[in-house]
UniProtKB/TrEMBL annotation, chain A:
InterPro entries hit by this protein: MPP6
Biological processes annotated in GO: maturation of 5.8S rRNA
Protein name: M-phase phosphoprotein 6
Recorded superkingdom: Eukaryota
Pfam families, per the entry: MPP6
Region called Disordered, residue ranges: 118-137
TrEMBL record, chain B:
One of the GO BP terms on file: poly(A)-dependent snoRNA 3'-end processing
Protein name: Exosome complex component RRP40
Pfam families linked: KH_6 (PF15985), RRP40_S1 (PF21262)
CDD domains: KH-I_Rrp40 (cd22526), S1_Rrp40 (cd05790)
Major localization class: cytoplasm
Swiss-Prot/TrEMBL keywords: Cytoplasm, Exonuclease, Exosome, Hydrolase, Nuclease, Nucleus, RNA-binding, rRNA processing
Similarity annotation: Belongs to the RRP40 family.
Gene from which this protein is expressed: RRP40
Source organism of this protein record: Bombyx mori (Silk moth)
GO molecular function: exonuclease activity; RNA binding
Length: 137, 236
C-alpha cells in the first residue's frame, strides 16, 4: 500500500550505542518476522491480490456517506446531560482560526485609542509615588 | 447496464463513472456498491448518490436492518445469558452486549439492567458470519450519549426515515426544537425513542416524525407549524 506511512526508525549510530543493545535485537527480530511472513505466503498471494482493493475503500454504513448527525438529542432542557454534550460538539464544529467577534475591529480600535489617551492624561500612580505618599503620613 | 450518478439503479448495473474516479484517486464505496475485478457493481435497487469529492452509495428504501460497524442502534434486552445480554436490534440475529461495557461497570459492580429494557448502543463489531456485538461506552470508557433509555416511547419506522431526520439539511428537528421540551434517540436500525413531558406532546412529536417521511422540506416546515399551533391551542 502506497498510502501507509513508514514507521519512524532510529538512526544506525544510535542503535550501535551500548545501551540500545536490546532495542537493536528487538528491531532485528521484528524485521525477520515480517520477512518470514512474506515468504510464507508468497506462493498463494499474487501481486494482483495485493493491488485488488487499490483505491477503493468499502464502507458499510450510511453515517459516513451522508454525514449524518448523532442520533441522541434533547431540546429545551429535557435532558441537561445530553444538551451539554450537544453544546460541546457545536463548539468543536466552529473553526478555531477566526474567533466570533461581538465588536467589529474598527470600533474596538477607536475605543482603545480614546482609552489610551485618557490613560496617559491621568495615569495611575506608580509604585514609587505610593511609597512617597505613605512616608509623608 | 451502464448507469451514472442520480440514476435509478438495479442490482447488477455497473458504473463506469466510479471506475474512472477510482483510477484517479481514492474512492469510498458506501452501501449498495461492490468492487469486483472488472468494475464497480450495484447490489441494491435505489438511486445512486454521490457526495463530493469521492463518496458513492445507493439510496434505497429498506426496512430490514443489516448491522454495520460504528452505527448507533436502539435495542431491547431479550435475555440475560451469564456475562452478556442478548439484545434485539431488528437484525437477522440478536446482538450481544457485555455487562462490562457500561460506564463504571466492574465484575463486582454489575449494571442494573433487566430484560425488556431499551438500550441505545453502538455496534462494535458486525460481520456477515458472526453475531453483532454492542457496547454502551466509547473508547475512553465514558458513556456519552449511550446507555439505557428510561421511560419514553419507542416506535419503528423505515431506515430511510432515520437517515432523513438525521440529515443536517432536514428542517424537521430544527423547526420542532423551539416548540416544546423533548428528547429523542434515533437508532440506525429503524427505531426511534421519544420522550416529552406530557402524552400529548409525545404523540405530537411521534406524528411529526412519522408524517415527515414522504414530505418535502417546505412541507415539513408547514406541518411542524401546524402541529405546534394545535398543541398550543389544546394547552391553553
Amino acid at each position: 500500500m502506497a498510502g501507509v506511512k513508514k514507521k519512524p526508525q532510529l538512526p544506525k549510530s544510535v542503535l550501535d550505542m551500548k545501551f540500545m543493545k536490546k532495542t537493536k535485537e528487538r528491531l532485528e527480530r521484528e524485521l525477520e518476522d515480517t520477512q518470514d511472513h512474506g515468504s510464507l505466503y508468497s506462493n498463494i498471494i499474487t501481486n494482483a491480490m495485493r493491488s485488488a482493493s487499490g483505491n477503493y475503500v468499502t464502507e458499510a454504513s450510511f453515517i459516513f456517506c451522508e454525514n449524518l448527525m448523532e442520533g441522541r438529542l434533547s431540546f429545551k432542557g429535557m435532558n441537561p446531560e445530553i444538551e451539554r454534550l450537544m453544546e460541546q460538539e457545536k463548539l468543536k464544529e466552529i473553526p478555531s482560526g477566526e474567533m466570533q467577534k461581538d465588536i467589529p475591529d474598527d470600533i474596538l480600535a477607536k475605543k482603545f485609542q480614546a482609552f489610551n489617551k485618557r490613560k496617559r492624561a491621568s495615569s495611575t500612580p506608580s509604585k514609587y509615588t505610593m511609597v512617597k505618599k505613605k512616608k509623608s503620613h | 447496464m451502464n448507469v451514472s450518478i442520480d440514476d435509478v439503479v438495479l442490482p447488477g448495473d455497473h458504473c463506469p463513472e466510479i471506475v474512472a474516479a477510482g483510477e484517479k484517486g481514492k474512492v469510498l464505496l458506501g452501501p449498495g456498491l461492490r468492487k469486483e475485478i472488472n468494475g464497480v457493481f450495484i447490489t441494491k435497487p435505489g438511486v445512486l448518490r454521490k457526495r463530493t469529492p469521492n463518496t458513492y452509495w445507493v439510496d434505497n428504501y429498506q426496512k430490514r436492518y443489516v448491522p454495520s460497524r460504528g452505527e448507533n442502534v436502539i435495542g431491547t434486552v431479550v435475555q440475560k445469558a451469564g456475562d452478556i445480554f442478548r439484545v434485539d436490534v431488528g437484525g437477522s440475529c440478536a446482538a450481544s452486549l457485555s455487562y462490562l461495557s457500561f460506564e463504571g461497570a466492574t465484575k463486582k459492580n454489575r449494571p442494573a439492567i433487566k430484560t425488556g429494557d431499551v438500550v441505545y448502543a453502538k455496534m462494535l463489531n458486525a460481520s456477515k458470519d458472526m453475531e453483532p456485538e454492542l457496547v454502551c461506552v466509547d473508547s475512553h470508557g465514558k458513556k456519552g450519549r449511550l446507555g439505557v433509555l428510561e421511560e419514553g416511547f419507542v416506535f419503528k419506522c423505515s431506515l430511510n426515515l432515520i437517515r432523513k431526520i438525521l440529515n443536517p439539511h432536514c428542517p424537521l428537528l430544527n423547526s420542532l426544537k423551539n416548540e416544546w421540551p423533548f428528547e429523542l434517540a434515533a437508532g440506525m436500525n429503524g427505531r426511534i425513542w421519544i420522550k416529552a413531558n406530557t402524552m400529548r406532546e409525545t404523540l405530537a412529536l411521534g406524528n411529526a416524525i412519522l408524517g415527515s417521511e414522504y414530505l418535502s422540506n417546505d412541507e415539513i416546515k408547514s406541518m411542524c407549524k401546524n402541529i405546534a399551533v394545535l398543541l398550543a391551542g389544546h394547552v391553553s
